[in-house]
Amino acid sequence: MRYPRTGTTGAVVRIEQVGADLFAELDSTHLLYRTDLLIPAEQAKAAAKSQKEDIKEIIQREREFAAGSEFQDALKNIDQSCEGGG
User: Fold this and answer.
1) Rounded-to-integer distance, Cα 86 and Cα 80, Å
2) pLDDT-derived band at 7, boundaries 50, 70, 90
3) CA 78 from centroid of its chain's CA atoms
4) For 56-84, b where at least 16 C-beta lie within 10 A, e where not — what string?
5) How far apart are CA 7 and CA 26, in angstroms?
6) Do 57 and 25 lie in a common domain?
7) Domain total for the chain?
8) CA 1, CA 21: separation in Å to the nearest integer?
9) Is 8 within a domain?
10) What's the domain of life for this entry (predicted)?
11) CA distance 70 to 65
12) Is the pLDDT of residue 30 over 80?
């Protein structure tokens, strides 16, 4: 299972009910996580693969932009000073 908020993954070693909520203990941390917030690790792997592909596309677009003439012209018109103010 995977807890997407922190990226923690592990196998469920026990289930515990606290009040109306179900919690699962993961073997990697020995902490309890709400079962409704856990996702199967296979889904997490598929989502991570999709994200990697998206990131590769973004990097390619950024490289194309940086190599373009508009960006290069903009770099020629700056004086390399930092005018942050303050």
Assistant:
1) 18
2) confident
3) 34
4) eeeeeeeeeeeeeeeeeeeeeeeeeeeee
5) 12
6) no
7) 2
8) 17
9) yes
10) Archaea
11) 8
12) yes
The amino acid that residue 47 corresponds to is: A
- Domain of residue 30: give its range: 1-39
Cα dihedral 54, 55, 56, 61, rounded to 10, equals 90
Two tokens at 26?
A: 């993961």
Mean pLDDT on 57-86 = 76
SS3 label, residue 57: helix
Closest CA to 11 of 40, 37, 50, 34: 40
What does pTM read for this prediction?
A: 0.49
- Strands, E, within 1-86: which ranges? 2-3, 8-9, 12-18, 21-26, 32-34
Where do we find the tokens 């677009």? 61
- Report the residue count for the chain: 86
Q: Give mean pLDDT, residues 60-86.
A: 75
Token pair listed for 74 = 């903009």
The tokens for 49 are 């693969």
Q: What six digits make up the tokens of 68?
A: 């373009």
